[in-house]
Amino acid sequence: MFEQTKQITVEGVVKEFQYTNPHSWLLVDVKDKNGKVTTWGFEAEGPSTLQRAGIRPSVFPAGTKVTMTGRPMKDGTPAAIWVLAVRDDGKKFDPRAGFAVK
């Protein structure tokens, strides 16, 4: 359902962080050049994996400016697998880092 060879990057503002099992969703409002807002959904792992990656709901409160990179839906729906999030302060968050064995 997601493109495995393509990536998209969008800039926007966090609308909501659905920190749930089995998959979490970071919803980001993205404004196009004409001012139209589209809510993009970025799917990630569940809370336990995200916690190991240093990602908690408090990291992305509503209103946080963020640049999201992901693998988009094949059908063109504004959603993607979350690959990387970069907050306006430059801090980077990779949800897959929670799978790392230390």
In short:
The chain has 102 residues and is mainly beta.
How would you describe this structure in keywords?
single chain; 102 residues; mainly beta; OB fold (Dihydrolipoamide Acetyltransferase, E2P); five-stranded mixed beta barrel
Explain the overall architecture:
The chain is mainly beta. The protein has a single domain, classed as OB fold (Dihydrolipoamide Acetyltransferase, E2P) (Beta Barrel), CATH 2.40.50. Helix content is 6%, strand content 45%. The protein has one helix at residues 47-52; strands spanning 8-18, 24-31, 37-44, 65-72, 79-87, 92-93. A five-stranded mixed barrel has the order 1-2-3-5-4. Strand 2 and strand 3 form a beta hairpin. The mean pLDDT is 94.
Q: What is the alpha-carbon Rg in Å? A: 13 Å
Number of strands: 6
Reported CATH architecture: Beta Barrel
Largest sheet: 5 strands, mixed, barrel
Report low-confidence residues grouped into runs of 5 or more.
none
